[in-house]
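User: Fold both of these, please.

Assistant: Here is the first one.
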Amino acid sequence: MITNKLLKVARAIAEYEGWEFYGADTSSAISGTKSWRNHNPGNLKASPFAVGSMGGFSVFINDEIGFFALVWDLWKKARGETQTKLKGSSTIYDLIKIYSAEPEDIVIKYARFIEQRTGILMTTKLEELIK
């Protein structure tokens, strides 16, 4: 089930991934961040909802589909239905460690960002996001 907790985490991920517009000219996709240009708030690398890819990241037809794809991806991970080996008993920290594939200090920074934005601890099990 899509819950408020799941949506909060998705929004926090989108914010951390830079899904915001930095340039003044909204008619130019080059002016925004990679996630903005690709309509990919989560900087997903693969998704069945993508219409293509650019620079190793999925491209979506619009922002709504891109955000839906992020929420769907998180939901599938919380159910243990992805190749990442994440499951319901995995934590938000585990999610970020796999999701970001960054060094430990960046993973901690990312997970703390999610905690600050959502009030949901990094030790929260993914299954709690969909209950």
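And the second sequence with its predicted structure:
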Amino acid sequence: MAVKKDRLSDAQKAELEKLRPFIARSGLIVKMNAANWRSTLDAILGISGYSPRYRMRCVRDLQDPPESIWLGPLPEGLPLYNYIEWIELNPISVDKADYSTAIRAALQTKGISFSLTKTGIRVYGYLRTKP
């Protein structure tokens, strides 16, 4: 099942125009666009038996979310892709099955870069050049 392309309202388009200068001032380097995010979600949602739980940091967040709080199911709760600094996937399902290998393989198949963290697998929408 493919993730549908965004249809932005005029208000959302105006908000995105305000976001561009913020991203430039903040020293954020764009790593993903909407097509990349849709491809990422398609890959993750295509993993048989995996119900993704995730943590997310948006570009305007002042700090990382708590490591102990996982949201889900994906993609519920996601903002517009332009706001996502990173999404970290919890490879351990609620029933304690480990999907690390399947997640990495799905992302690699789509050519999506990621990093391994102590709590999950992180996909970056932006990289910070300033602390």
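Residues 40 and 112 are 7 Å apart (CA to CA).
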